[in-house]
Amino acid sequence: MDIAENAALVVVDVQQGFEDLDFWGRRNHPGADENIAGLIDAWQASGRPVVFVRHDSVEPASPLRPGQPGNGFKEYVEQRRGKGGGGAELLVTKSVNSAFHGTPDLGAWLEEAGISQVVLVGIQTNMCVETTARVGGNLGYDVVVVFDATYTFDVEGPFGWRRGADEAAQVSAVTLHGGGFARVVMSADVLAGTR
Fold this sequence. Notes:
Layout: E1 8-12, H1 21-24, H2 32-46, E2 50-55, H3 75-80, E3 89-94, H4 106-113, E4 117-123, H5 125-138, E5 142-151, E6 155-156, E7 162-163, H6 165-178, E8 183-185, H7 187-193
Parallel strand pairs: 1-2, 1-4, 2-3, 4-5, 5-8
Antiparallel strand pairs: 6-7
Helix pairs in contact: 5-6
């Protein structure tokens, strides 16, 4: 697949608080962190821009609240910040699902840089990654979601309905891809397109 020379890698909410499985429950995609790290490395090596997104939760019980250890990025992400090899880098903070509704304004930054393609990785597939993809698609960006560089958790909805993490992630991927919001691909395809 073709990845634009200036495509932005948007790393969504890869924070320590998501390691608290007592809070979140069972997760999927055990190799996602390795894939995320590899994609950041590829982006930085090629001089492409990277956006790091941090969720500053306003929920009192959330491990992602500012001031809590869980609010910080996972160690492998923190180690890669500021090492862009000349590529632009941005930190966006948000308290809602979409990275397009954070500070500073992601859309304005992308527009100013002439970026029309965004590649999304991170946590959670069916929450903040999906919402960012939907908003990006609605705004006219060429959105790529790297499925095996995302993960999520088991979820409970209305009427006592429960879905496992794998199923929730697959439904998200089908909706994004089938609905025309984004192209959903695997990390190997993206890495091949960055060479």
